[in-house]
Write a structure and sequence with these properties.
- By secondary structure, this protein is an alpha+beta fold.
- Among the domains are: 2-104 and 805-902, no CATH class; 112-152 and 201-385, Beta-galactosidase, Chain A, domain 5.
- It is built from 26 helices and 33 strands.
- The chain has a nine-stranded antiparallel sheet with strand order 2-9-10-11-12-19-16-15-14. Strands 1-31-33-29-28-27-20 form a seven-stranded antiparallel sheet. Strands 3-4-5-8-13-18-17 form a seven-stranded antiparallel sheet.
- Strand 27 and strand 28 (832-839) form a beta hairpin.
- Helix 13 (421-438) crosses helix 26 and helix 24 runs antiparallel to helix 25.
- The radius of gyration is 28 Å and the shape is globular.
- It starts with a strand and ends in an 11-residue tail after the last strand.
């Protein structure tokens, strides 16, 4: 090992107390991890309840005291900088310490779900990637929405007609300048052929109801979600009694586990399973085939529920109640528990099959469950916890007083204009939690509602791949969650034959045409409007995720067997679809820039103008060529890596790459969204996909082409300023990612602040748009839940802290002043992971790079910092290099540690600290 300088221990001031029991956890006085706190089984649960009651008596005072010092208490404890977190974090980060107070990884709310008419929107979610449960938090008549990822309904699928001859007619009209006439031609031909499919939507499985009669008014109500365990709890006091309900969905046992308990009182409840109530008192839009086929029975401590889907298959649930003390009874399709100290409720669900067979199977499985609540939770967290701890981010300012604040207080602070580091960090963790809980290997991709859709015929509930699907996966590889990318790749790869059929019948092309919108049962286009039918970029954009999976895992077999074939299919479509212009350059038409219309083809009139797709059919959308350039570049690299490419195909791809037209700049100094003189730019729009070369791709940067980079930056600025009222939650998240990639931290943070101010609910679900007409997003009555922004937030935070481009890593590229100190553990770059901690007020930075496989990269420090010390284990790092950029060459498993300081006179200002 080569030692240069002294390995500083100053970052101990950013770390948390480590209890020498073999497992580090939180600050003194904070809650121990589940596996330790519940190790004694049922007796320990009694102690847990007792401790909770004592805690409730003191309100949140104890919590606030535990976190008032934030990292102040931790600043005196764990020496060795990032070393302490790395010891446990070498794999999935097991045992990683928790910074700040006990609420750093919790949502803590003081009210139940309150969105009148659609309470499910503000429920607290738990899930295992297949089964979802969302807790409203009511005391008298509690509702838990039950869902299943594979339960969809209402679709009408049709054979896609052969209409490929329409393409020549569309192009003839466009060549004549008759763009409006060309715009609707394909849609019209499909309709003339009788093609009018109806998309399917998620179907809520059931509601679990817990009904009781209050004995007194409630006090000290709390509703919490523990992100580290996936446990939702509801607590309150009533008279002299304290009550607690806690629920999680087991990743290990495919089981909903729910326990009701009381101290100083007893559990007297009725338990029901019934069709989902969309609102507070009615079931609008519930399909008639659900109500007409409904069957509910109660016997022997079990509730059985089933209804029939429109495909003739049943779906339903079986519930088992196990009271401790008291009496269990059945009456009129419900179970009743009276006089119990607590009751354990176990639920299994099914989404297809014969009800009688499924009931028999699930009842037998439930009878076999002999574990306590705590034991079941430990089994679950053994799988859930490592995913949550695969990476960690801690954001701090001068003080950590917000680390124990109620979630609603963090939201109020953001609403008034101040996005705290605590909320930014909580949203990062929450987005990861939703993703981890909402998908799993072998299942479906993460959807716009996650697992927790409570609407019948939910709007925009399909998988939308003209940005939304991609945004939900931007964070995953860098966040150490590559295994959860596979469900999305599986989903699209398994439908290749249908996508080939789409390409042939719609455009007469080989290769694949992936419609922007698909559902599990519908890979043919069901949105036949021009803005969807004329956008051909989905396959190419998704191909980058196939190649990114390879880049971050190094799985050559995946590259050969899966990524390369998919990329070839995407390229083959372009070979047939694109034509050569008079100048020898490629021409793409019809061409759409999602979901925009050129400025000279639309009237801007309020929200309908902002949302309208008046005439999206154009020529040479920049996005088409940005996707194509990245696809072909990656494809040629993949062929070189694998040696599996026909010389003639390589030649064709190389020629295509050379013929891509250059990007252009308009009179405003902004890059043109359409590379054709007939179309003017339109800045008042939420989509900003034409910035693709800057983000998510790495084609254009300030270093590679300053002038072109500035043109892209000007397009971004005009989108934000001119179109501020035309944004959405996901577009604010997209803008934040772009600003982060542009290394502009304050605008990146302000975009997240705008999102929080306009499109964030009490349970931290993001919605598509504001519904209150506050002027910083689209505003109209419907504001559907859309979790793409939740996950876009995760990516934005990671981009602000780490640029992980091919062959280069930059630390803190877009750090806002308010994030004056903090730490990162195990964010990934292509061939390894990086951990570091910083304190700008002191001008100190310390970290380490660990190679997962052979690593050769350029590591860049933040502006104004110079390298002061290095421990280079098994590295040929060059002595004497002080930065700001220096090469890192490591073999697999080796680590390089570094310390850096801000140069004198170049300290970061103290604003916001």
């Amino acid at each position: 090992m080569r030692r240069i300088g002294i390995w500083s221990g100053w970052t101990q001031e950013l770390r948390c107390r480590t209890i020498r029991s073999g497992r580090p956890w939180a600050l003194k006085g904070a809650e121990a991890p589940a596996a330790e706190a519940r190790a004694d089984g049922p007796q320990q649960e009694v102690e847990d309840m007792k401790g909770w009651q004592e805690e409730a008596a003191g309100g949140v005072k104890g919590w606030q005291e535990a976190g008032a010092g934030g990292v102040a208490g931790s600043q005196k404890e764990t020496a060795g900088g990032v070393k302490g977190s790395q010891q446990a974090g070498a794999g999935k980060g097991d045992g990683a310490p928790s910074y700040g107070g006990r609420n750093r990884r919790r949502l803590v709310l003081r009210r139940p779900a309150s969105w009148w008419g659609q309470l499910w929107r503000e429920a607290l979610p738990s899930g295992n990637g297949l089964i979802g449960a969302a807790v409203h938090g009511a005391i008298g008549s509690e509702t838990v929405l039950l869902t299943h990822a594979e339960l969809w309904t209402g679709g009408t699928k049709q054979e896609l007609p052969e209409v490929s001859g329409t393409l020549a007619e569309i192009r003839r009209l466009m060549d004549e300048g008759a763009y409006r006439e060309a715009n609707g031609l394909l849609e019209g031909r499909l309709r003339e052929a009788g093609y009018e499919p109806v998309r399917e939507t998620p179907l809520p499985l059931a509601d679990l109801k817990v009904v009781r009669t209050a004995q007194a008014g409630f006090r000290r109500y709390r509703r919490e979600l523990d992100l580290e365990t996936g446990e939702v709890s509801v607590r309150w006091e009533e008279g002299a009694a304290a009550y607690e309900r806690k629920l999680f969905v087991s990743r290990s046992d495919d089981l909903i586990v729910y326990e009701l308990g009381s101290r100083g009182g007893c559990v007297d409840v009725a338990l029901l399973l019934q069709p989902h109530e969309k609102g507070t008192a009615s079931r609008p839009d519930m399909p008639s085939y659900v109500s007409e086929s409904l069957e509910i029975t109660a016997a022997d401590g079990f509730l059985r529920y089933a209804a029939r889907n429109d495909d003739g298959r049943d779906f339903g649930a079986v519930l088992r109640a196990v009271p401790a003390g008291g009496r269990l009874g059945e009456d009129q399709g419900r179970l009743s528990v009276t006089g119990a100290d607590k009751v354990l409720i176990l639920v299994k669900v099914f989404a297809g099959g014969d009800r009688s067979q499924e009931w028999t199977r699930l009842e037998a499985e439930l009878r076999e469950v002999a574990w306590t609540y705590s034991e079941l939770l430990d089994r679950h967290t053994a799988l859930h916890g490592p995913l949550m701890r695969s990476a960690d981010v801690h954001l701090g300012g001068a003080g950590e007083e917000a680390s124990c604040t109620y979630t609603d207080e963090l939201l109020q602070e953001a609403y008034e204009g101040g996005l705290s580091p605590a909320l930014a960090e909580l949203m990062w963790a929450y987005g990861r939690y939703l993703f981890i809980s909402g998908t799993r290997p072998g299942g479906l991709p993460f959807g716009l509602y996650g697992l927790w859709c409570g609407d019948y015929k939910a709007v925009w509930s399909h998988f939308m791949a003209n940005e939304n699907v991609q945004m939900m996966y931007w964070h995953a590889a860098a966040g150490g969650l590559s295994e959860l990318i596979l469900p999305m790749l599986d989903y699209y790869e398994s439908r290749l034959e249908i996508f080939r059929d789409n390409a042939r019948k719609l455009y007469g092309c080989r290769g694949i045409f992936i419609p922007a919108g698909t559902t599990p049962g519908m890979a043919e286009p069901f949105q036949t409007v021009p803005v969807i039918m004329h956008w051909t970029g989905a396959a190419g954009w998704l191909a980058r995720h196939f190649y990114e999976y390879y880049r971050f895992t190094g799985d050559l077999e995946f590259l050969r067997r899966r990524a390369l074939p998919f990329m070839k299919e995407a390229a083959l479509f372009y070979e047939d679809f694109l034509v050569e212009g008079e100048d020898g350059r490629l021409v793409s038409y019809p061409s759409v820039s999602p979901e925009n219309t050129p400025g000279n083809y639309i009237s801007e009139e309020g929200v309908f103008g902002a949302m309208a797709h008046a005439m999206p059919t154009a020529v040479n959308a920049l996005l088409d060529f940005a996707i194509l350039k990245e696809l072909l570049t990656d494809l040629l690299e993949a062929v070189e890596l694998t040696g599996e490419g026909e010389p003639e195909a390589v030649r064709r791809w190389s020629v295509l790459l050379e013929r891509i037209p250059a990007y252009e700049v308009n009179g405003d100094g902004a890059v043109r969204e359409w590379l054709h003189p007939d179309f003017t730019d339109r800045y008042r729009h939420r989509h900003i996909s034409h910035i693709y070369p800057v983000f998510p791709a790495y084609e254009v940067s300030r270093d590679s082409d300053p002038a072109l980079f500035e043109a892209f930056a000007e397009a971004v600025r005009r989108r934000q300023v001119v179109g501020i009222g035309d944004q959405t939650a996901w577009s604010w998240a997209h803008l934040s990612n772009i600003y982060a990639r542009m290394e502009e931290g304050e605008p990146a943070l302000e975009c997240l602040a705008m999102l929080a101010r306009s499109c964030l609910q009490d349970n931290l679900y993001t919605v598509h748009n504001d519904w209150r007409h506050m002027g910083v997003s689209l505003s109209y009555g419907r504001a559907p839940v859309q979790m793409d922004a939740n996950l876009g937030w995760v990516s934005a935070v990671q981009e602000m802290l780490l640029l992980a481009a091919p062959g280069r890593v930059k630390l803190l590229p877009a750090l806002p002043a308010s994030w004056a100190q903090g730490s990162v553990r195990d964010l990934r770059f292509e061939t390894g992971r990086v951990s570091f901690a910083w304190n700008l007020q002191r001008g100190q930075l310390e970290g380490e790079v660990t190679a997962g496989r052979q690593t050769n990269l350029l590591l860049t420090l933040p502006p104004g910092f110079r390298l002061t010390a290095v421990e280079a284990e098994g590295s040929d790092w060059a002595a004497g290099c002080t930065g700001p950029s220096f090469p890192v060459r490591l073999s697999a498993g080796r680590t390089l540690k570094f310390t850096a300081e801000a140069e004198r006179g170049r300290m970061v200002p103290d604003e916001g600290m």
